[in-house]
Amino acid sequence: MGSTTTPVTDRRAAVALFSRLRTPQGQADPFPLYARLRSRGAVTPAPWGGYLVTGHDLCAGVLRCGDWLEPDRGWRARQGSGTRWNAPSAREIGNTLPALNAPEHARVRRAAGSFDRTSIQELGRTVGGIVDGLLDTLAERLRDGEADFADLVSERLPIATIGSWLALPRADWARLRDLTHEQVFTQELLPSASQLARSDAAMAELRTYFMDLIRHRRTHLGDDPVSRWIRTWDAMEPDREQADEGVYFLALFVLLAALETTSTLLSTMALLLVERPERWDLLTARPDLVPAFVEETLRYDPPTHVISRVAGKDLTLGGYEVRADEMVHLMVGAAHRDPARYPDPDRFDPGRDTTQHLAFSAGSHYCLGAPLARLEAQTLLRHLVTRLPRLALVRRPPMAPRVVFRRLLSLDVSYA
After folding, report:
1. pTM (2 d.p.)
2. What is the Cα–Cα distance from 185 to 89, expressed in whole angstroms?
3. Rg of the chain in Å (alpha carbons)
4. pLDDT by residue (tens digit) across 16-60?
């Protein structure tokens, strides 16, 4: 059955809402706009073509269905040389694990390995020590009145964790973190030409960095992940150049995935903790609620608000006919506030059932780094509420100019 309104009419109606979503006010609090968008139906034609999906069950169904594909290299090439999908940074990101489809996705995922229980236990000791050091610095700064939690903790914990795990030189960590923030524009919905240029430059520098690292690591093989990936790809791919490319795209993927979204999770979690004193008091009295607090943060305001897929064949979604190769944008931030899935969805409630949240995607592309992100968030939260007096929010944090990937530019706190 077709929709009751035409795609042209619906697209026009979505323009005003989406224009507001791209303003600083909309980026600071997009959820009222999501509610208005969702009121138009679980699926709405996007202003630029394709469809916006705001219903939770439809988003989950798309992520778990093999008929909906990643916009991979082949799809990007079909969009034409003059499109944003064929910018150098877009082509580069199209070679990383999250942009691959079966059977290549399964092959590369096996090569990547996973964060199993033993690995997480080993990393747990590393993360605990890093968190203690960062909170020491934060406490020192707070003696002067206020401190930027995002800069001193949220931005530093992920790069220190993944930098240590990959055995990357400490002197490189800050630059790699900055490059990660620059490259992300190629994954936004409607990047400008200047934003794409920044992504292109950042991605080129990241390629040079990791290819140099791989060549050096080949002569100094150890027990680190990059060395293991070199051995794995050498066994899979007889062409040395192609093997190095495989290792590079794995290292690039791990860096980007571990930094951008995890730092946002940590800042958002801290914001939710310090803006309401009773939440701090709750966790102080009930430290067993730490995992639930993290999961509700992921539901309430996930680091990634949009996940895009393309139709692998002609399909029907929410009453609309979606043609093969047409794109749908799963509005995860809106789906997480869908009252059909979460009662009273605008209320932050660590006691609610969050088992179906989509912050780490779902299906075959479920986030490989989810256990590590949870480890960092839970460790930080436990140490925060046990080591420091209650913190308070000094001012509302500014947000980066993004729609897909959330990022708090700062988070100023003080002792309450």
Report:
1. 0.94
2. 9
3. 21
4. 888 888 888 999 999 999 999 999 899 999 988 899 999 999 999
Sign, Cα dihedral of 126, 132, 133, 134:
positive
For residues 322 and 110, give the distance between their C-alpha atoms in angstroms, rounded to a whole number.
32
Please choose, from the candidates 376, 227, 205, 402, the residue with its C-alpha nearest in 3D space to the C-alpha of residue 304: 402
In the prediction, which pLDDT does 122 show? 79
Task: Fill in the amino acid letter for 389.
Answer: P
Q: DSSP characters for 32-62? A: HHHHHHHTT-SEEE-TTSSEEE--HHHHHHH
The C-alpha atoms of residue 101 and residue 39 are separated, in whole angstroms, by 33
DSSP classification of residue 95: T
Question: What count of other Cβ atoms lies within 10 Å of the Cβ of residue 415?
Answer: 14
**Is the distance from CB of 392 to CB of 416 less than 8 angstroms?**
yes
Can you list the residues of the chain whose pLDDT is less than 70? Answer: 1-11, 13, 114-116
HSE of 68 in the Cβ direction (CA atoms, 13 Å)? 23
Amino acid in the structure at residue 128: G
Task: Determine which helix (DSSP H) or strand (DSSP E) holds 175, and give its type and residue range.
Answer: helix 173-183
d(CA 352, CA 218): 49
Predicted confidence (pLDDT) per residue in 103-116, tens digit: 999 999 988 886 66
Residue recorded with tokens 């093969």: 324
With vertex at residue 11, the alpha carbon angle to CA 5 and CA 17, rounded to the nearest 5 degrees, is 115
Distance CA 321, CA 338 (A): 23
DSSP class of 396: P
Tokens representing residue 394 in the block: 């000094």
